[in-house]
């Protein structure tokens, strides 16, 4: 940057200003003197991170400043990752853990520097690996860091840092190879056999599991080579040749038809001849079959229930409407006999999306869809967010103790498992209040319903058709001009009108923070009554959830109307019961509700927020830019899932921050809460028309 280094007295003043040291009777003379020797770029980075940490805790800021003053020069480019690891440790366990983690990481870095190796931190590769795993076939997998590499078939744990290869790029490739091999364990049946009978014959279980992991790596590399030959070539280059005394086992496990049972057979053979120490390969992780099979059993039971309940609604729909009228599902072959796609061919298109994913997961765990899954079961209609655990989509939970990540723009990274979300029982109010609103706005409701009914019956004109109900005047004029000029006129001279089939799911996210108390809360409730009355005329699928909370440890969601619920007396009472509560931690609510919305089987999905102000929470951290950046990140995640977002607010200052969150054309600011009921239905019509 060309700027001079700061002198000790300047650094001391800056630290005092950032950490309020004079108020705490601390002196920054020592760390300032240490920082004086650093380049200006490192001085600025240390001051930046001290200030970031101080926004969480003054003591944390002081710890970061004092440790970084000593370690920054040796850490160099790794300084940011080192500080982020310390901040994550503070989030989990407090100040003592921060000191311990940062000291250990700094010492480990110094050791690696002695060997001239360029390691890679998990935090630096996490985003790239997450996208890589998302693109692979099979069930979605969560990616987290831990002390070792292993998988329980639903989560991949990778080391917090790799420095095995001699350069940075080599360690990046190694991370990818380790993740790919763990994915292959879940994809190609490593846990579809019970290894316990063989493991019990070994005197050392840890050594036995290491051999099992090694033989599975031999087998899985062949399976990876079929689908991802380039990746298999990279893995082979990283590991080098297999040991010569294992050549027979490697050849046996390289057969395309080899399974995990063949790996167990190789274990039995090497136990018979006398197993020595397991050869070490950097891309081979550990295995914990007990943990994996425990999850596998629960998952199979859950997914069997999802598939059977989905088949139940197919059978019910066929009974009610008949095969000819059922456009969503195939007809049944005969009473009591459900006609389903061929499971071995994985042609599962007839099932709803969540059930289709469950069926694919069953095939991954069992190699086939078991016969008991092909019989309908379960009470009532299947819905992807209706009730029990078996219908909840992966990564979306309505049970207490659900954790969501939160984006910290200051750190430039995620705070993992930071927000604790609860789905609370929505309170109920007086049904007479809804009746009074419907009576008071009867004329407006009739007017809105007429406009919405016209929207439902609207036809879309398709111009320049070979035939149709109307003449396309523009096409006729062009054809006449072509004939006069000697050109061949187009035969497409008509307009055909096609009936628009609506395929839309809408999630209304209602701010229940304390600032909505009074007129704002009344306006929100009245708006929802008018919306429900109007949307019922359209037939769109919609849900209403309130959100509030108190700090990151208690973020609350209130289901007023789920997608599966009808607009009946119970729903109207829950609308009447919406009331002002605590604060507005918006990012976690967007992530949770967009997760519910994305499971809806519609072409278009819309998330509409009703709020009276910007993201906010108890204390200073979430206020201001932090909350805006986290909410913006959550809305970008929703957009990547195909969800459009829109905000309706009565905050007169909304134009200051809403363009950053929603974009310049995706919000409306209403200057008076009393106008909200009259405006909201028209806004909805414009959004969905």
3D structure, described in words:
- The chain has helices at residues 8-19, 29-36, 40-54, 58-75, 79-93, 95-114, 122-135, 168-187, 196-199, 205-227, 229-239, 247-253, 260-273, 289-321, 353-366, 431-440, 442-456, 473-485, 519-538, 569-576, 586-597, 625-640, 658-662, 676-688; strands at 120-121, 142-146, 150-151, 155-159, 161-162, 402-408, 413-423, 459-465, 470-471, 494-499, 504-511, 541-549, 555-561, 604-611, 643-649, 667-669.
- It is of the alpha/beta class and 689 residues long.
- It folds into five domains: 8-114, no CATH class; 122-287, no CATH class; 291-391, no CATH class; 402-450 and 503-688, Rossmann fold (3-Layer(aba) Sandwich), CATH 3.40.50; 463-499, no CATH class.
- α4 packs parallel to α6 (95-114) and α8 (168-187) packs across α10 (205-227).
- The longest helix has 33 residues, at 289-321.
- It is globular and about 85 Å long.
Subunit arrangement of the protein: single chain
Major sheet: order of its strands?
6-7-13-12-11-14-15-16
Separation, N- and C-terminal Cα atoms: 53 Å
The CATH architecture of the largest domain is 3-Layer(aba) Sandwich
What is the number of domains? 5
Indicate the proportion of strand residues: 5-15%
CATH level 4 superfamily of the largest domain: von Willebrand factor, type A domain
Catalogue the unreliable spans.
Answer: 319-347, 378-400
């Amino acid at each position: 940057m060309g700027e001079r280094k700061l002198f000790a007295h300047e650094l001391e003043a800056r630290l005092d200003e950032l950490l309020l040291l004079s108020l705490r009777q601390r002196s920054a003379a020592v760390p300032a003197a240490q920082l004086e020797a650093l380049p200006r770029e490192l001085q600025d980075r240390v001051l930046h991170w001290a200030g970031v940490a101080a926004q969480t805790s003054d003591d944390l800021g002081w710890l970061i400043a004092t440790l970084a003053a000593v370690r920054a020069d040796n850490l160099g480019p790794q300084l940011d990752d080192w500080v982020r690891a310390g901040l994550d440790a503070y989030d989990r366990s407090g100040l003592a853990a921060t000191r311990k983690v940062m000291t250990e990481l700094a010492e480990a870095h110094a050791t690696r520097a002695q060997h001239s190796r360029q390691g890679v931190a998990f935090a630096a590769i996490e985003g790239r690996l997450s996208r890589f795993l998302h693109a692979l076939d099979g069930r979605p997998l969560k990616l987290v860091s831990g002390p070792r590499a292993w998988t329980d078939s639903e989560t991949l744990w990778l080391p917090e840092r790799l420095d095995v290869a001699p350069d940075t790029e080599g360690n990046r490739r190694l991370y990818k190879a380790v993740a790919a091999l763990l994915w292959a364990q879940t994809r190609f049946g490593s846990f579809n056999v019970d290894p316990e009978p063989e493991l019990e014959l070994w005197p050392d279980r840890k050594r036995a599991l290491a051999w099992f992991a090694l033989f599975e790596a031999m087998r899985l590399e062949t399976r990876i080579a079929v689908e991802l030959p380039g990746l298999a070539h990279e893995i082979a280059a990283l590991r080098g040749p297999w040991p010569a005394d294992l050549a027979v086992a490697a050849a046996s496990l390289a057969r395309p038809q080899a399974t995990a049972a063949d790996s167990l057979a190789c274990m039995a053979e090497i136990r018979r001849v006398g197993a020595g120490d397991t050869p070490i390969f950097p891309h081979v992780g550990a295995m914990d079959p007990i943990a994996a099979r425990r999850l596998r059993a629960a998952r199979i039971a859950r997914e069997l229930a999802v598939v059977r309940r989905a088949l139940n609604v197919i059978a019910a729909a066929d009974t009610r409407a008949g095969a000819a009228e059922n456009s969503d599902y195939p007809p049944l072959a005969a009473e009591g006999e459900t006609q389903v796609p061929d499971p071995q061919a994985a042609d599962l298109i007839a099932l709803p999306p969540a059930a289709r994913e469950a069926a694919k997961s069953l095939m991954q765990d069992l190699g086939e869809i078991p016969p008991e899954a092909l019989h309908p079961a379960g009470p009532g209609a299947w819905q992807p967010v209706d009730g029990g655990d078996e219908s909840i989509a992966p990564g979306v939970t309505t049970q207490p103790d659900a954790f969501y990540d939160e984006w910290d723009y200051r750190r430039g990274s995620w705070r993992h498992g930071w927000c604790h979300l609860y789905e609370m029982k929505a309170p109920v109010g007086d049904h007479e209040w809804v009746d009074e609103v419907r009576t008071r706005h009867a004329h407006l409701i009739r007017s809105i319903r007429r406009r919405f009914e016209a929207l439902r019956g609207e036809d879309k004109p398709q111009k320049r058709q070979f035939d149709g109900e109307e003449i396309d005047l523009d096409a006729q004029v062009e054809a006449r001009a072509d004939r006069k000029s000697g050109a061949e006129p187009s035969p497409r001279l008509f307009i055909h009108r096609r009936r628009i089939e609506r395929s839309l799911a809408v999630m209304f996210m209602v701010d229940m923070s304390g600032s909505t108390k009074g007129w704002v809360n009344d306006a929100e409730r009245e708006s929802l009554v008018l919306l429900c009355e109007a949307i019922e005329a359209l037939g769109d699928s919609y849900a209403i959830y309130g959100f509030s909370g108190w700090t990151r440890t208690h973020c609350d969601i209130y289901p007023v109307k789920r997608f599966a619920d009808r607009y009946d007396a119970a729903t109207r009472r829950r609308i009447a019961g919406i009331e002002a509560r605590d604060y507005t931690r918006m990012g976690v609510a967007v992530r949770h509700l967009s997760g519910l919305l994305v499971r809806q089987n519609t072409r278009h999905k819309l998330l509409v927020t009703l709020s009276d102000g910007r993201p906010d929470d108890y204390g200073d951290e979430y206020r201001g830019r932090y909350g805006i950046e986290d909410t913006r990140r959550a809305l970008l995640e929703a957009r990547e899932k195909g969800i459009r977002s829109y905000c309706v607010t009565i905050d007169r200052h909304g134009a200051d921050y809403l363009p950053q969150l929603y974009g310049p054309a995706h919000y409306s600011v209403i200057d008076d809460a009393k106008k909200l009921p009259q405006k909201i239905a028209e806004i909805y019509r414009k959004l969905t028309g």
